[in-house]
């Protein structure tokens, strides 16, 4: 069933405020990729990808630093064939999270009301002093701590899997 509810900045900020999370906000021109020339310098480099198994209803949100993703290694950790691991389509991004490509964020997970997404966190995120996430718009970045990311995910009903 299609949700078509668009994730909003207001609801992302409200979630952080409801959890009493101390965050920093950085406003900037719209950025669509990590290599976007508008991307502010000095922010933690993270990558947010919504992946899925081909022809399956299992979806994965994968957050990592800006390293290249090794799909074969990731598939091995998930116990699936790497040829079955693909990017979710724009329509699936909109249906599951209420966002478009370039705005994928853990703060949009509140739209995955059926919990179809398994959250995977790269172990390197723990070492970062701050983690960056869009507040459901790509004209701002929220900086928060690892513990606060886990707090957000817990409130939304997710038990993330930490991967290499």
What does this structure look like?
The chain is an alpha/beta fold. The chain has helices at 9-18, 71-78, 90-97, 146-155; strands at 24-27, 46-53, 59-65, 85-87, 117-122, 131-133, 140-144, 161-163. The strands form two sheets. It has a five-stranded mixed sheet. A three-stranded antiparallel sheet has the order 1-7-6. The radius of gyration is 15 Å and the shape is globular. Keywords: Protein biosynthesis.
Topology:
Blueprint: H1 9-18, E1 24-27, E2 46-53, E3 59-65, H2 71-78, E4 85-87, H3 90-97, E5 117-122, E6 131-133, E7 140-144, H4 146-155, E8 161-163
Parallel strand pairs: 3-5, 5-8
Antiparallel strand pairs: 1-7, 2-3, 2-4, 6-7
What descriptors fit this protein?
164 residues; alpha/beta; YbaK protein; 5-stranded mixed β-sheet; 3-stranded antiparallel β-sheet; 8 strands; globular; YbaK/aa-tRNA-synth-assoc-dom; protein biosynthesis; YbaK/aa-tRNA-synt-asso_dom_sf
